[in-house]
Amino acid sequence: MLALIPAGIGCGRGVVYVLVPLSGLDQRCFMSMTATAQWAALPDHSAEIARVREEFITAYGYEPDGVWSAPGRLNLLGEYIDFLGGSCLPMPLPYRTYIAGALRRDGVLRASSLQMPGDERTVVIRDIQPGHLKGWFTYVAGVAWAMNQEGGRDIMLPDEFGADLLINSRVPVGGGLSSSAALECSTALALLELSCPVRQGCPEVDATPADSDALRARLAQVCITAENKVAGAQTGGLDQTASLRSYPEQALVVDFRDFSIEPVAVDIAQHGLSFLVIDTNTPHELTDGGFAARRAASEACADALGLRFLRDALPEDLSCTGMDARAAKAWRADLVDSSVNRALDALEDAGRPCTFPRGWVRHAFHDMTLVGRASYLLQHADELGFAAFEEAGRIFTESFVSMRDELCVSRPEIDDAVQVCLDQGALGARIVGGGFGGAVMALIPTSQLEAAADAVATTYAVRGYAAPRFLPMVAGFAASHDWSAGADPTDIPVF
């Protein structure tokens, strides 16, 4: 008996499989193996706030001044296009990073993480420089550094400002769900508000300076700067924008040419649908050059076309209003092909012939058109009904195929999870995040949720992959100031 076993990724064709003979015993094991899905617990917001406050007291021996938190994000659509001026469709997760913090007046930043026991870090804020830090603390100290680079007395940290921080992240790390952005954004909110008593013109009592979207947009830029220049990950701002500026229980349409946002309801429950989020337990790495190379390729095309953003090479309206699904898909395909040809011709004319896979640029144009159509479908779901989600599901899968075959950022664990979900009745499924591992999202009938999760778990067991985790998914809310010293520890807002 022979079994098909994944041997790696065949760029352009998905997974490459090889035929492997199995012994009689192996045959029986292969045929009978089953696994039960392991579901992560949905965090209790109030309990998490209480816990991080108590852990701060244990670590530092005194009461924190407050507790702040920020969510990871589930990006429904739009990968590798935020830095190109494209639009994306993120929504906040219920999984958050919590920070208890207290003001110091000696210019020192001290931080500990429950995920890194015994690894307490200390730095003088004015001494922070890019390239001098490593590990998780890079994201914390990087935010402090970036706050002093962005200008404005309402963001810059005074010379005497310091802080003690205790961090507890409930966002899966390395899963493509923006654990780094959740850490950055909760840190930014905490540092900004903790510094109020030592900042000129900032009230010491009941200070909530970050309660406006305009200031949160600036804080998002601070976190982007920290990610790019200190952490060394050349991401475009999708994650930070979603974490700081989301609306409760809604997705955002974010236009990254100007970072404008438009909330959009994603009411899938009324249609008997759920999001299945799978942490494939195949951590990805975005600082090893793969992400940056793909970004550089598309940015080179924009430059050759004389455009600030590659998005501007496409028509403004990508909604395909008035078209049915088939016509819209055909229109997108023609537009994408013609746009790629024009971009590569511009490179050739500029004396910079293409040295990278054509698919990298094709994916960028492709996903931009997909977001344009999907945004329209979600914004008009009330009038279009279930058909809007059926077409959106197919678009999710179309985006996955592009990421697998054109962008080449998938791997067998991802491919198998997507295919199993589709086989179990999902309307669509795709990679979440930068790929090379991470998470999968599927839009699936709620009645099939458990069966699909068990089927994925069984497939992973049969293939010999690490066991995946399944995340209950409800829409979360943006970064928040959750508790202040002097308040009743039980008096915690419920969202």
Give the helix/strand layout.
Layout (H helix, E strand, L loop, with lengths): L1 E9 L3 E8 L2 H9 L12 H16 L5 E12 L9 E18 L3 E6 L7 E4 L12 H11 L14 E8 L9 H16 L18 H18 L7 H8 L4 E6 L4 E6 L7 E7 L10 H15 L20 H25 L8 H22 L1 H4 L1 H20 L6 H12 L4 E5 L6 E7 L3 H15 L5 E3 L8 E5 L11
Parallel strand pairs: 5-7
Antiparallel strand pairs: 1-2, 3-4, 3-14, 4-7, 4-8, 5-6, 8-9, 10-12, 10-13, 11-12
Helix pairs in contact: 3-4, 3-5, 4-5, 4-6, 5-6, 7-8, 8-9, 9-11, 12-13
Principal-axes geometry comes out as globular
Q: Report the β-strand fraction as a percent range.
A: 15-25%
CATH topology of the largest domain: Alpha-Beta Plaits
Assigned CATH architecture of the largest domain: 2-Layer Sandwich
Q: For the record, what CATH class of the largest domain applies?
A: Alpha Beta
Number of helices: 13
Taken in chain order, the helices and strands follow as EEHHEEEEHEHHHEEEHHHHHHEEHEE
Mean pLDDT: 89
Q: What is the fourth-level CATH superfamily of the largest domain?
A: GHMP kinase, C-terminal domain
- Termini separation: 55 Å
Radius of gyration: 23 Å
Overall tally of structural domains = 3
- Judged by helices, strands and strand pairing, the structural class is alpha+beta
The counted number of beta strands is 14
The low-pLDDT segments are 1-10, 12-31
